[in-house]
Amino acid sequence: MNNKSDFFRFERKNDDFPFYSELSSPSLNLKSSLIFLVSVAVGFALFLIMFGGPNVQPFMNVIFPLAAVIFVARSQWTSLFRKLVAKDILLILGTYVANLIVTGIVGFLITKLFSTSANPATDSFNGNFADAIPFFLRTIPMLFGEELITILPFLVVLSFGVKKLKMSRKSAIILACIVSAILFGAYHLPTYNWNIVQAILGIGIARIVLLYPYLKTKNIWTSFIVHVMNDWTMFALAFWASTR
């Protein structure tokens, strides 16, 4: 465990990120970092080409990154997942509200200053609730996969910053947040018709908010739950609009 002064004030001091430091077991090296990154790239590429059709595609960003974590970390792969505790409820709800506010403000500013493209998912509803249910269910593995393909690069950059660049833990976390948010935005470029401002800036800023629960708890479940709540809210509004 690092010195408590290396932690941000909002972090829970009894938990640390896995894999990134020499004190971690296992500690990421060049080989394991490349395995993480290649798994993310392969999973996303297969997702992008809709490999396996609509019922298989959502799992591509889960299968390969999670398999990489299990291969690298062996019995320690579960360090990405921690037990949810009562105080996580307020954290999840607070982040959910904060993200809706930030997303709304950023989205408003971007639409006023730049040309934007609609998310095709929000245009796919036909007002039929029975048709919408499979869509919502498919987003569960899809959004969990988005957490994996964000957090694995975050851990790789964090490890690189601490061990290779000799950055402080706090500085490396900031760098990892920025890089992973940019990557997350880049993942959405095809969704938003390659609109760089909308994907990198708009989605990237929202991703930093979504990262907060993980930064605080080191538990991927917290950021995943907020992610589902956020996107389902947006999709629910789009579905409601399709019924009008």
From TrEMBL:
Presence of keyword Transmembrane helix: yes
Q: Which residues form a coiled coil?
A: none
Picking any one GO biological process from the record gives:
CAAX-box protein maturation
User: Could you tell me the keywords of this UniProt record?
Assistant: Membrane, Transmembrane, Transmembrane helix
Pfam families the record matches: Rce1-like
The UniProt entry, under InterPro entries, shows: Rce1/LyrA-like_dom
Q: Where are the transmembrane segments?
A: 34-53, 59-77, 89-115, 135-160, 172-190, 196-215, 220-241
Q: Which domain of life is it from?
A: Bacteria
Organism whose genome encodes this protein: Paenibacillus odorifer
Residue ranges annotated for the CAAX prenyl protease 2/Lysostaphin resistance protein A-like domain, each copy included: 144-232
Does Transmembrane show up as a keyword for this record? yes
In its UniProt entry, what is this protein called? CAAX prenyl protease 2/Lysostaphin resistance protein A-like domain-containing protein
| Molecular function terms from GO | endopeptidase activity
